[in-house]
Amino acid sequence: MTVVNRLAQFLDASPTPFHAVENMRAALLSAGFQELNEADAWDLKAAQRYFTTRNGASIVAWQMPADALAESGLRMVGAHTDSPCLKVKPKPELHQQGYWQLGVEVYGGVLLNPWFDRGLALAGRLTCLDEGGALCHHLIDFKRAIAVIPNLAIHLDREANSGRAINAQTMLPPILGQSDQALDFRALLREELARQGVVVSEVIDYELSFYDTQGAETVGLNNELFMSARLDNLLSCFMGLEALLNADAKTGMLLVCNDHEEVGSMSATGAQGPMLENVLMRMLPDAEQRICMLTRSMMISADNAHGIHPNFADRHDANHGPLLNAGPVIKLNANQRYASTDVTSAIFKLLARDAGVSVQEFVVRSDMACGSTIGPITSAELGVKTLDIGVPQFGMHSIRETAGVQDVEATVEVLTRFYQLDSLPA
């Protein structure tokens, strides 16, 4: 199976961060990694491979080096598991004009227009009482279109193509069907869970989001483009995992995929929370040795970049407009919205050169605001030298995004070589 086929399977099976982490967990277990519970004492051994999760939505996987960790350092790759979406509210039931609807909350910087007129499924995690009255958690995925957010016909809004403002409160509640009676949403969830083979006595709470039922696919006359939901940033999670599993070395390697990047990363599972630092402290409890280790380490923050759009080329700096299928992008910003430095950029460029991979650079226009990633957060929290890179894409934060097939394969190759580096400059 090709890298892109594996990517498509991963994306289609990962409609939420909970599902993405569960799929990564399964791949790591299959590859011989040992799962650790954060609540237990750890006894880490040299040259062994481990992983741990938090809240089912963030994951850290690593290989202990064969040599002393303080002397060898870590080669780290970071990404995030969450994507902008529409999340179901706690009391979502709406019954208007004979239609069942659900109230939704906008999560992250969603590009809202593409959510209209699409078949939407629902997935996430349920917290329930089992038949014995004990609290339990279950993933749920309807895997079929159960809802739609219909557009208003142009006949009723003649100015729609001139720019229709979208009211998230009134215009986004999806339609689930028709009935003369009100919807009991938790009963619906319990019934769907039973159809999936799990019986519970009550659904107490949930974290659910809608997603597009159209699957990942290659497009273009030569199949050179790849389209899917959640490329930002499950694509980077996938590439980091592929590289970790491909790397054949005794070096210290680590992959961290955090939740909540799209809403600022400030949470127990986000990059601004303590999860990664907690793991590093348990890997190397001595504070002075840990500082030595971090000085000899490097983090590559992988989060997609804005490819230059041929219809909107003026939105890019003319010298820094990344092309799809022209190689991974180093992201730079003088105001530290990205954490790349000349040193970390040079390391990546040399790795890419050895792999025969072209590298591009992105700098936002000087008259536009710049986005950010987990890179500056991790760099500031840990004091580790960091590089921000990403695959160029179109339609970032849309319900359906586009990237280049060759870029996926090339970036996996460079990340694999990064993991296998014998040493890093202090």
Automatic annotation (TrEMBL):
InterPro entries: Peptidase_M18, Peptidase_M18_dom2. Its cofactor is Zn(2+). Gene3D superfamilies: Aminopeptidase i, Domain 2 (2.30.250.10), Zn peptidases (3.40.630.10). Keywords: Aminopeptidase, Hydrolase, Metal-binding, Metalloprotease, Protease, Zinc. It comes from the Bacteria. Its EC number is 3.4.11.-. GO terms for cellular component: cytoplasm. Belongs to the peptidase M18 family. NCBIfam families: PRK02813.1 (NF002759). This is M18 family aminopeptidase. It comes from Neptunomonas marina.
